[in-house]
Write a sequence for this structure.
């Protein structure tokens, strides 16, 4: 049996996990989520918690409360691997029936697979934010040049930048910004 394609971020996403060491991909995915939700719901409010020190009740209260001004919200839990380890059973109960007026977003460097993953996939997605290979980083760089700076970057230049700077997208993005200012 063929494996189903991984679910992507869209306006129906109620729970999302962004895990891995590549911070730039986490920022891009959060931006894509925000854009999709704003297109569907209008203004979207964001609240961020530190998963190492926040309380479960605070996160769940924020998800379940209705604001006076905003219609929809994103509740972000950073360092989510610690938070999920400490509150797995309660989060499994929440993931079985998430609220309709908010999206819970976990950001973590590590993610341990478990029963929670299957519940999350019903209402959202799990996205690996791993460092890209050199060819994929060069392709990403060429794409960013067009999207962000309305400039074309040839493959040889993109390859050279990746060979010299590595595949960390944040660093490549900064260097691309500098290059775009020069031309």
């Amino acid at each position: 049996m063929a494996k189903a394609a991984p679910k992507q971020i869209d306006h129906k996403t109620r729970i999302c996990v962004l895990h891995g060491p590549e911070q730039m991909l986490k920022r891009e995915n959060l931006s894509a989520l925000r854009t999709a939700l704003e297109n569907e719901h209008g203004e979207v409010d964001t609240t961020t918690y530190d998963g190492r020190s926040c309380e479960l009740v605070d996160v769940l209260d924020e998800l379940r409360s209705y604001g006076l001004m905003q219609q929809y919200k994103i509740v972000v839990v950073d360092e989510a691997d610690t938070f999920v380890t400490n509150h797995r059973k309660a989060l499994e109960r929440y993931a079985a029936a998430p609220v309709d007026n908010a999206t819970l977003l976990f950001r973590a460097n590590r993610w341990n697979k478990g029963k929670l993953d299957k519940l999350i996939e019903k209402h959202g997605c799990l996205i690996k934010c791993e460092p890209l290979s050199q060819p994929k980083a060069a392709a990403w760089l060429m794409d960013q040049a067009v999207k962000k700076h309305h400039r074309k970057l040839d493959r040889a230049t993109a390859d050279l930048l990746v060979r010299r700077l590595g595949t960390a997208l944040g660093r490549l993005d900064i260097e691309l910004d500098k290059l775009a200012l020069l031309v």
The two ends are 51 Å apart (CA to CA). The helical segments are 23-41, 56-64, 80-96, 115-123, 134-149, 155-165, 169-182. The beta strands are 15-19, 44-50, 72-78, 102-108, 124-128.
